[in-house]
Design a protein that fits this description.
The chain has 222 residues and is mainly β. The protein contains one helix and 17 strands. The strands form five sheets. The chain has a five-stranded antiparallel sheet. Strands 2-3-4-7-8 form a five-stranded antiparallel sheet. A hairpin with a 4-residue loop joins strand 3 and strand 4. The protein is elongated.
Length: 222
């Protein structure tokens, strides 16, 4: 049958850890489709200041992107949603309306009292997914990035990412490959999800054998 390899996947190995030093020297950018235009940039910045009654010092973790791009946001503005595996990123998703995404901030007040954006889903989150849409010459594409953000907002760890190379088509978080539904002579139908394949056959084929063969010819499973 036909296989559709529209999902482009990248395992960031080793994981990239972004802090305020790397942000100043070389901000970490992802160019999903390798068109020499960064689609999203991750950074960590220091926050520091004083009022008439207290001082504060801490960090802010964030993402920035061109005005044509956007992230799935918890409040349709700048607060990034920390998605679980298997969530669809598509035209139906709720995207923020800013060119900035807030992963969270944390600070010490008067040098000892902890204060943080506790309502920000990504702050202190491990292995969560950021939903992204970006615009290319081919159209609008949907993508995800797997991230961890330190509880003190001092670091962002980028682990992997993927996008759907077919304009306008959705991608699920965690999805690393795309396979279309396959029909063979109206006797075998294979339906795929992220982790499973359901194989239906006509009664005359029950008791037969089905092998999954890789593109290099290796039998993976029978």
């Amino acid at each position: 049958g036909a296989a559709n390899a529209q999902i482009t996947y990248m395992d960031v190995n080793p994981d990239v850890v972004i802090d305020s030093n790397t942000t100043l020297i070389n901000p970490y950018a992802i160019d999903f489709n390798n068109d020499a235009t960064p689609d999203i940039v991750f950074g960590v910045g220091h926050i520091e200041g004083a009022t008439s009654s207290f001082t504060y010092r801490g960090a802010l973790a964030y993402a920035a992107f061109p005005a044509t791009n956007a992230i799935i946001a918890a409040d349709t503005a700048v607060m990034a949603s920390a998605l679980d595996c298997g969530v669809a990123v598509s035209a139906a998703s709720i995207f923020g309306n800013d060119t900035y995404g807030n992963f969270g901030y944390a600070a010490l007040i008067n040098g000892s009292i902890p204060f943080s954006s506790t309502t920000t889903p990504f702050l202190g989150a491990t292995d969560k997914y950021l939903g992204v849409k970006f615009t290319a010459t081919s159209g609008t594409h949907y993508a995800w990035v797997k991230l961890s953000v330190a509880a003190n907002a001092e670091t962002i760890t980028v682990k992997e990412y993927a996008f759907n190379a077919t304009p306008g088509e959705a991608i699920n978080t965690c999805q690393t490959a795309g396979i279309e539904d396959v029909s063979v002579e109206n006797k075998v139908t294979i339906k795929t999800t992220l982790n499973d394949a359901t194989i239906n056959v006509t009664p005359d084929l029950i008791g037969g054998s089905i092998s999954m063969v890789s593109m290099s010819g290796q039998v993976v499973k029978t």
